[in-house]
Design a protein that fits this description.
single chain; alpha/beta; DHBP synthase; nine-stranded mixed sheet; 26% helix
Protein backbone atom coordinates (compact mmCIF):
# COMPACT_ATOMS: atom_id res chain seq x y z
CA UNK A 1 0.00 0.00 0.00
CA UNK A 2 2.70 2.51 0.98
CA UNK A 3 4.71 1.79 -2.18
CA UNK A 4 1.63 2.16 -4.40
CA UNK A 5 0.68 5.46 -2.75
CA UNK A 6 4.23 6.80 -3.21
CA UNK A 7 4.35 5.83 -6.91
CA UNK A 8 0.90 7.30 -7.60
CA UNK A 9 1.68 10.58 -5.79
CA UNK A 10 4.89 10.87 -7.81
CA UNK A 11 2.94 10.60 -11.08
CA UNK A 12 3.85 6.99 -11.80
CA UNK A 13 1.78 4.09 -13.06
CA UNK A 14 0.72 1.19 -10.84
CA UNK A 15 -0.48 -2.06 -12.38
CA UNK A 16 -2.99 -3.46 -9.92
CA UNK A 17 -5.76 -6.02 -9.50
CA UNK A 18 -9.36 -4.85 -9.48
CA UNK A 19 -12.59 -6.75 -8.98
CA UNK A 20 -12.76 -7.30 -12.74
CA UNK A 21 -9.36 -7.40 -14.49
CA UNK A 22 -5.85 -6.02 -14.01
CA UNK A 23 -5.69 -2.27 -14.46
CA UNK A 24 -3.17 0.51 -15.01
CA UNK A 25 -3.74 3.36 -12.58
CA UNK A 26 -2.45 6.91 -12.14
CA UNK A 27 -3.45 9.76 -9.87
CA UNK A 28 -5.75 12.23 -11.61
CA UNK A 29 -4.00 15.08 -9.77
CA UNK A 30 -0.61 14.53 -11.45
CA UNK A 31 -0.15 16.49 -14.68
CA UNK A 32 0.87 14.25 -17.57
CA UNK A 33 0.23 11.00 -15.70
CA UNK A 34 -2.77 9.97 -17.80
CA UNK A 35 -0.78 10.34 -21.03
CA UNK A 36 1.32 7.39 -19.83
CA UNK A 37 -1.83 5.23 -19.89
CA UNK A 38 -2.67 6.25 -23.46
CA UNK A 39 0.91 5.52 -24.51
CA UNK A 40 1.10 2.13 -22.76
CA UNK A 41 -2.19 1.01 -24.27
CA UNK A 42 -1.56 2.43 -27.73
CA UNK A 43 -4.93 4.15 -27.46
CA UNK A 44 -6.05 7.48 -28.86
CA UNK A 45 -7.02 10.30 -26.53
CA UNK A 46 -10.50 10.38 -28.08
CA UNK A 47 -11.47 7.41 -25.86
CA UNK A 48 -11.40 8.78 -22.29
CA UNK A 49 -9.96 6.93 -19.32
CA UNK A 50 -12.41 5.88 -16.57
CA UNK A 51 -11.95 7.03 -12.98
CA UNK A 52 -12.07 4.71 -9.97
CA UNK A 53 -13.28 6.11 -6.67
CA UNK A 54 -13.42 5.07 -3.02
CA UNK A 55 -17.17 5.62 -2.66
CA UNK A 56 -20.19 7.44 -4.07
CA UNK A 57 -19.32 10.69 -2.26
CA UNK A 58 -15.93 10.80 -3.98
CA UNK A 59 -17.61 10.00 -7.29
CA UNK A 60 -20.33 12.63 -7.11
CA UNK A 61 -17.75 15.31 -6.24
CA UNK A 62 -16.46 14.85 -9.82
CA UNK A 63 -19.92 15.00 -11.40
CA UNK A 64 -21.96 18.00 -12.48
CA UNK A 65 -24.89 18.85 -10.23
CA UNK A 66 -27.49 17.53 -10.23
CA UNK A 67 -26.22 13.97 -10.61
CA UNK A 68 -28.74 12.10 -12.77
CA UNK A 69 -31.11 9.99 -10.64
CA UNK A 70 -30.37 7.05 -12.96
CA UNK A 71 -26.66 7.24 -12.08
CA UNK A 72 -27.43 7.38 -8.36
CA UNK A 73 -29.79 4.38 -8.59
CA UNK A 74 -27.29 2.33 -10.59
CA UNK A 75 -24.51 3.18 -8.12
CA UNK A 76 -26.72 2.25 -5.16
CA UNK A 77 -27.45 -1.11 -6.79
CA UNK A 78 -24.03 -2.03 -8.24
CA UNK A 79 -21.35 -0.24 -6.19
CA UNK A 80 -18.97 -1.37 -5.08
CA UNK A 81 -18.85 -3.49 -8.21
CA UNK A 82 -18.26 -3.83 -11.95
CA UNK A 83 -20.40 -0.96 -13.26
CA UNK A 84 -19.08 2.32 -14.69
CA UNK A 85 -21.53 5.21 -14.96
CA UNK A 86 -20.86 8.05 -17.39
CA UNK A 87 -22.07 11.45 -16.18
CA UNK A 88 -21.40 15.10 -16.97
CA UNK A 89 -18.19 16.34 -15.33
CA UNK A 90 -18.18 18.91 -12.57
CA UNK A 91 -17.21 22.26 -14.10
CA UNK A 92 -14.31 22.78 -11.68
CA UNK A 93 -12.77 19.34 -12.10
CA UNK A 94 -10.14 19.74 -14.78
CA UNK A 95 -8.27 16.43 -14.65
CA UNK A 96 -7.01 15.32 -18.04
CA UNK A 97 -8.58 11.94 -18.77
CA UNK A 98 -8.89 12.32 -22.55
CA UNK A 99 -12.09 12.68 -24.51
CA UNK A 100 -13.74 16.06 -24.96
CA UNK A 101 -13.69 16.95 -21.24
CA UNK A 102 -17.47 17.07 -20.80
CA UNK A 103 -18.09 13.66 -19.20
CA UNK A 104 -16.45 11.22 -16.84
CA UNK A 105 -16.87 7.47 -16.39
CA UNK A 106 -16.96 6.67 -12.66
CA UNK A 107 -16.67 3.32 -10.91
CA UNK A 108 -16.36 2.21 -7.30
CA UNK A 109 -14.68 -1.21 -7.51
CA UNK A 110 -15.37 -4.10 -5.20
CA UNK A 111 -11.69 -4.34 -4.25
CA UNK A 112 -10.55 -3.03 -0.87
CA UNK A 113 -6.99 -2.21 -1.97
CA UNK A 114 -8.17 -0.03 -4.85
CA UNK A 115 -10.72 1.79 -2.70
CA UNK A 116 -8.04 2.35 -0.02
CA UNK A 117 -5.70 3.79 -2.66
CA UNK A 118 -8.49 6.14 -3.80
CA UNK A 119 -8.97 7.27 -0.20
CA UNK A 120 -5.23 7.90 0.20
CA UNK A 121 -4.43 9.46 -3.19
CA UNK A 122 -7.78 10.57 -4.56
CA UNK A 123 -9.64 9.35 -7.65
CA UNK A 124 -7.53 7.18 -9.94
CA UNK A 125 -7.60 7.27 -13.73
CA UNK A 126 -7.62 3.57 -14.52
CA UNK A 127 -7.82 1.44 -17.63
CA UNK A 128 -7.46 -2.27 -18.27
CA UNK A 129 -3.87 -3.51 -18.46
CA UNK A 130 -3.81 -4.49 -22.11
CA UNK A 131 -3.03 -3.04 -25.52
CA UNK A 132 -6.06 -1.23 -26.95
CA UNK A 133 -8.49 -3.76 -28.42
CA UNK A 134 -6.66 -6.82 -27.00
CA UNK A 135 -7.82 -9.13 -24.23
CA UNK A 136 -6.57 -8.31 -20.72
CA UNK A 137 -4.18 -11.03 -19.53
CA UNK A 138 -5.30 -12.87 -16.36
CA UNK A 139 -2.01 -12.54 -14.45
CA UNK A 140 -0.03 -9.53 -13.29
CA UNK A 141 3.15 -10.68 -15.02
CA UNK A 142 1.41 -11.25 -18.34
CA UNK A 143 -0.43 -7.92 -18.08
CA UNK A 144 2.84 -6.09 -17.35
CA UNK A 145 4.50 -7.79 -20.33
CA UNK A 146 1.56 -6.93 -22.62
CA UNK A 147 1.84 -3.19 -21.96
CA UNK A 148 5.60 -3.01 -21.34
CA UNK A 149 5.10 -1.89 -17.74
CA UNK A 150 8.24 -2.04 -15.61
CA UNK A 151 7.04 0.08 -12.68
CA UNK A 152 5.19 -1.06 -9.58
CA UNK A 153 3.12 -4.19 -10.13
CA UNK A 154 0.70 -5.42 -7.45
CA UNK A 155 0.11 -9.13 -7.97
CA UNK A 156 -3.42 -10.18 -7.03
CA UNK A 157 -3.23 -13.71 -8.44
CA UNK A 158 -5.15 -14.85 -11.49
CA UNK A 159 -8.11 -12.68 -12.47
CA UNK A 160 -10.57 -14.23 -14.88
CA UNK A 161 -13.23 -11.52 -14.65
CA UNK A 162 -14.86 -9.49 -17.39
CA UNK A 163 -14.43 -5.76 -17.82
CA UNK A 164 -16.97 -3.46 -16.19
CA UNK A 165 -20.22 -2.62 -17.90
CA UNK A 166 -20.26 1.03 -18.99
CA UNK A 167 -23.56 2.92 -18.90
CA UNK A 168 -24.17 6.40 -20.29
CA UNK A 169 -26.33 8.24 -17.76
CA UNK A 170 -26.21 11.53 -19.67
CA UNK A 171 -29.17 10.33 -21.76
CA UNK A 172 -32.62 9.08 -20.84
CA UNK A 173 -33.22 6.23 -20.95
CA UNK A 174 -29.66 5.22 -20.06
CA UNK A 175 -27.63 3.53 -22.78
CA UNK A 176 -25.18 0.66 -22.37
CA UNK A 177 -21.92 1.64 -24.08
CA UNK A 178 -20.14 -1.63 -23.27
CA UNK A 179 -21.60 -4.78 -21.83
CA UNK A 180 -19.30 -6.44 -19.35
CA UNK A 181 -19.66 -8.12 -15.98
CA UNK A 182 -23.15 -6.69 -15.37
CA UNK A 183 -25.69 -7.85 -17.99
CA UNK A 184 -27.15 -5.02 -20.08
CA UNK A 185 -30.68 -6.07 -19.16
CA UNK A 186 -29.89 -5.47 -15.49
CA UNK A 187 -29.11 -1.77 -16.03
CA UNK A 188 -31.89 -0.70 -18.34
CA UNK A 189 -33.80 1.56 -15.97
CA UNK A 190 -35.96 4.60 -16.76
Amino acid sequence: MDDAVAVLRAGGVVLLPTDTVYGLAVATTCPGAVQQLFDMKGRGRDVPIAVLVADADQAWALAAVPVPPSARRLAERWWPGPLTVVVARAPGWDADIGGDGTTVGLRCPDHALVRDLCRAVGPLATTSANRHGARTPPTAAAAAAAVGHTGLVVDGGELAGAASTVVDCTVSPVRVLREGAVPAAAVCIP
